[in-house]
Amino acid sequence: MIFGIYKPEQGYWVRVLSAVFAGVLVLAAAAWAWSQAGAVNLPPKSYSLDLQAIHGEFSPGQTVELVGVADDAEGSEIVIANAGVLGFSKTGSRTARLEIGVPDFSPGARIDQVERVRTKDADAVVRARQATPVIPLIYLQAGVTGAVMLLGSVAVYWFVGSNRRTVDFLINTDGEMRKVNWSTKKEIIGSTQVVIVAAFLMAAFLFLIDISFQQFFQFIGVLES
Predict the structure, then answer these.
(1) Which of 39, 51, 62, 105 could join 124 in a cystine, given CB atoms 3.0 to 4.6 angstroms apart?
(2) Predicted TM-score of the model (pTM)
(3) Reduced to 3 states, what is the DSSP secondary structure of residue 72?
């Protein structure tokens, strides 16, 4: 009975509506999982550096020095990491993009501290830095969301379709619902009109009581007019 429908001919609408409601919850959980996965910081497999003021060229296979500014009064330049060049391409007459592997940063150093890159024969100023994660973030989001939807769908199917205890409960609920004496359309309209009129009458009565007390307390000087 794991993969079959238990008593498929009984409790149809209660089971269907339960599945719809549970499906909405699963979709809400999947949307939440998508947003949460989008906030994950994946480890980088490489970095892209946008360069300007380039002197010389960088070749794949070279090792470049990543230069930052020291935290001292002079603001001198220091080498904060070394990295291997994965690719180099021109994006303009004086601009280019440099792809590097994951640098071996010195303790406390970060990629956003890199101001220049250099080798023995080339030098450039870094104007932007971007990490390339080990996998595209959208793949992680799609995988997590798909897993939530798959597990949720299996759970819903098990709850309304194959689990004997829950299915019997839903079937019994359907049987009790059929015993309910539902009001007719005319009775519902009449009851609604009575409720609306009673609400307005009660509001008017309370308004008059409130005005009366206000005038009384102003008359005896408890409230200022």
Answers:
(1) 51
(2) 0.66
(3) coil
